[in-house]
Amino acid sequence: MSNFTHFNEEGRAKMVDVSAKPDTVRTAIAHSSIVVNPVVYDQIRHNQNKKGDVLAVAQVAGIMAAKKTWEIIPMCHPIPLKGIDISFEWDVKDETYELLISVSVKTKGSTGVEMEALTAASVTALTIYDMCKAVDKGMKIGQTYLIEKTGGVSSPDYRREG
Amino acid sequence: MSNFTHFNEEGRAKMVDVSAKPDTVRTAIAHSSIVVNPVVYDQIRHNQNKKGDVLAVAQVAGIMAAKKTWEIIPMCHPIPLKGIDISFEWDVKDETYELLISVSVKTKGSTGVEMEALTAASVTALTIYDMCKAVDKGMKIGQTYLIEKTGGVSSPDYRREG
Amino acid sequence: MSNFTHFNEEGRAKMVDVSAKPDTVRTAIAHSSIVVNPVVYDQIRHNQNKKGDVLAVAQVAGIMAAKKTWEIIPMCHPIPLKGIDISFEWDVKDETYELLISVSVKTKGSTGVEMEALTAASVTALTIYDMCKAVDKGMKIGQTYLIEKTGGVSSPDYRREG
Amino acid sequence: MSNFTHFNEEGRAKMVDVSAKPDTVRTAIAHSSIVVNPVVYDQIRHNQNKKGDVLAVAQVAGIMAAKKTWEIIPMCHPIPLKGIDISFEWDVKDETYELLISVSVKTKGSTGVEMEALTAASVTALTIYDMCKAVDKGMKIGQTYLIEKTGGVSSPDYRREG
Amino acid sequence: MSNFTHFNEEGRAKMVDVSAKPDTVRTAIAHSSIVVNPVVYDQIRHNQNKKGDVLAVAQVAGIMAAKKTWEIIPMCHPIPLKGIDISFEWDVKDETYELLISVSVKTKGSTGVEMEALTAASVTALTIYDMCKAVDKGMKIGQTYLIEKTGGVSSPDYRREG
Amino acid sequence: MSNFTHFNEEGRAKMVDVSAKPDTVRTAIAHSSIVVNPVVYDQIRHNQNKKGDVLAVAQVAGIMAAKKTWEIIPMCHPIPLKGIDISFEWDVKDETYELLISVSVKTKGSTGVEMEALTAASVTALTIYDMCKAVDKGMKIGQTYLIEKTGGVSSPDYRREG
């Protein structure tokens, strides 16, 4: 006699069904940062790192990671990204050198692209870390979070308040 | 003088042209299984495998593999999967412990998703094998096949008969 | 006041530490199969499938999958494979056409290669399925299992009995 | 006091925004080639290379590379390829043995597919090189270029002149 | 007449040569975290997230990302990881719910594994974000940094102070 | 009665066994090039391409492709690359603008790295093509070949003659 045991569905992972959602233009902007020491700050600004142009490499890494987000984050849906832009800004105060990273992602698809923007921001910061770790062993990647999200059908646009 | 030799097309691989097929909602359900010994059966049920929660890891592996099917199976077209769900059921009889694996995949695209469901089912079974192979060297992955397929334009829906 | 909650380790996934294991030559042989209808049997034998030479494509797919096993199976260690060989054999009896798949894998590394052999066997079968599914909707991938494993340091060689 | 330094945008990499472009059927044909010695020429024609059927393996490699172009070329947009076909032709003259490679790619998407065709052509040639390098150490991959491109919305169709 | 222009090497990216470094056992521990709202806190603790067991999925994602670090971070050397372990701890105070993430990585190779530990920590946090973003739109991934690094030949062991 | 049909081995692909080969330091240098029009020549030299710094992006792409060669070329063995360096040089004569690409790869492993150097050279050229194709539709990637190879155990060092 056969004895079947059905599992309780609770807690088991699934990639939720989004087949009913229409394709709309969607954007997301994410933020990350990295705090470095003055030597790294100078190297990056004067392009003297011996592994190469730190920000150029980091930007390529971030763009490539955005496209691969669905391979890296298990429950993310594959989305055909239409545009990716990564920009940098230095925030220097009180002997603290922080490089701010801003990633903007655009698609025309059925899910939001906040994970793509966040993943690109993280990988951009990680790549800067990798390029500079021989010079500064104490770097910290700063907070990583969503700044803005538009184009969702079921949810209103999101903008982080002040 | 130049001497051109044209090849006979026969037998050369190609990814067949599906650009004329419209995007429709399509589903597929595939089945696989794995036969384990009583020790593995107990470990899985009581979550005592030293590598981790066997079924949770296998489910993540299966979902990720479904999304990468077009990278693994050479002539498969890339398809934007919209939903993936993997469930388990034990079939215990006559001292045989068989874990049944069922994978359901959904897309809105121009080709069927049976390969995605079958690949996910196989990888789910392989992952269970990997997690448990230190305890049971005689496991066998059972038959892997399509249960159901819907949404094709040129072909009728398919359901495996009892 | 801060309130820390430590997790019970039980059930959480890890890739177990094998850094103490020496690199030795290791081999594994895995088996899979696929049952097809007579039309597919003839197409494969006479190389008349319109997607290409079925077994040639399947062999390439299996070899490439073996190398990527650590990307597909979550807790597998990355291993530098040194050799992969895939062979086929038809078993025809009583109107049943079964293509037997045998995969042999070799490495010089710190873990066994049974998962690499099994993954390659599964992907080889899945690729045959994909190449032939337009002609036969009722194919079944047969049992997939380990035939032989040698070279482990802590465990004796394994050979499946009759 | 905080001191922000804005970067000049010039020279920083981005994946340009194509979200406003409609999906249309697009095709591209690319050309590459490889010059080999007479021993390789004979091996390929009589299928006697010890690593396998050279052209069959190269064709699978080219098709798989076309699908992965957006992972290999950093600023390429991910595109759902709909069809890929690779053909070969020998050009033998004056003791020179040149294998001509032609790759045709089709999509229904918002960008052209010339990079997919060119990447597939290069990888096809590289794979032939790999299969034959034990026999001929002096092979050269020939020029690689676009032959034809159709379906762009903003740009006219392209055909290389004589 | 031909006119060659040599480039100044400065600023061009390279993967630096480590072929002279011996293989030694190396470890790294990295830290990240994510701040969530009370609803997410409860969902995770009672395993009630509708996408699945949040921490189980995140752990698998982190382990798989560690192995792929060299594919994600451009100038990282490929390293055969020997062990990966990810653990969690809640820090709850003053209405703030922060999940602390600790990743430990081990290899026997010629470079350190801090990038592997940091990448795994980031991806673990990103995956938690993805699983919970439907419930909490204001999550922030906390600082990500190296805690400890051992086994380097040319550089002393590193431990972050206080 | 069962009827087994053994296949002739001839022509079937395999990844040849290199487990008996010792790990030695090995290097390879490969060459490729791309011919562009004067507008592209000026854009690259003055870093005015709107997609970004062409050579910086191409260098990152080439380095990442070298590491993934075993995933792209089916019968290539996975090798842990130890160093990669890509350099450029302009050859301008008679209104022809040709960018020369030189890739140097180093490993400590059991097979040569000529495929890694050649693949990196091709992908570097393809990336330049992609960055500049909006401006010049007639670019051609030049010949791609091996310049030098050292460190093989069974085969003597190779250097291409003038």
From TrEMBL, chains A, B, C, D, E, F:
- Which GO terms label this protein's molecular function in UniProt? cyclic pyranopterin monophosphate synthase activity
Q: What is its EC number?
A: 4.6.1.17
Domain Molybdopterin cofactor biosynthesis C (MoaC) stretches: 15-152
Q: Which UniProt keywords apply?
A: Lyase, Molybdenum cofactor biosynthesis
List the catalysed reactions: (8S)-3',8-cyclo-7,8-dihydroguanosine 5'-triphosphate = cyclic pyranopterin phosphate + diphosphate
This protein's pathway: Cofactor biosynthesis; molybdopterin biosynthesis
In its UniProt record, which GO terms are filed under biological process?
A: Mo-molybdopterin cofactor biosynthetic process
This protein's superkingdom?
Bacteria
What would be one Pfam family of this protein?
MoaC
The active site of this protein is located at: 130
Name the positions where substrate binds: 75-77, 115-116
Q: Which family does it belong to?
A: Belongs to the MoaC family.
Q: How does it assemble?
A: Homohexamer; trimer of dimers.
> Which PANTHER family has this protein been placed in?
CYCLIC PYRANOPTERIN MONOPHOSPHATE SYNTHASE, MOLYBDOPTERIN COFACTOR SYNTHESIS PROTEIN A
Q: What does this protein do?
A: Catalyzes the conversion of (8S)-3',8-cyclo-7,8-dihydroguanosine 5'-triphosphate to cyclic pyranopterin monophosphate (cPMP).
What protein name applies here?
Cyclic pyranopterin monophosphate synthase
Source organism of this protein record: Falsibacillus albus
According to the entry, what is the taxonomic lineage of the organism? Bacteria, Bacillati, Bacillota, Bacilli, Bacillales
Gene coding for it? moaC
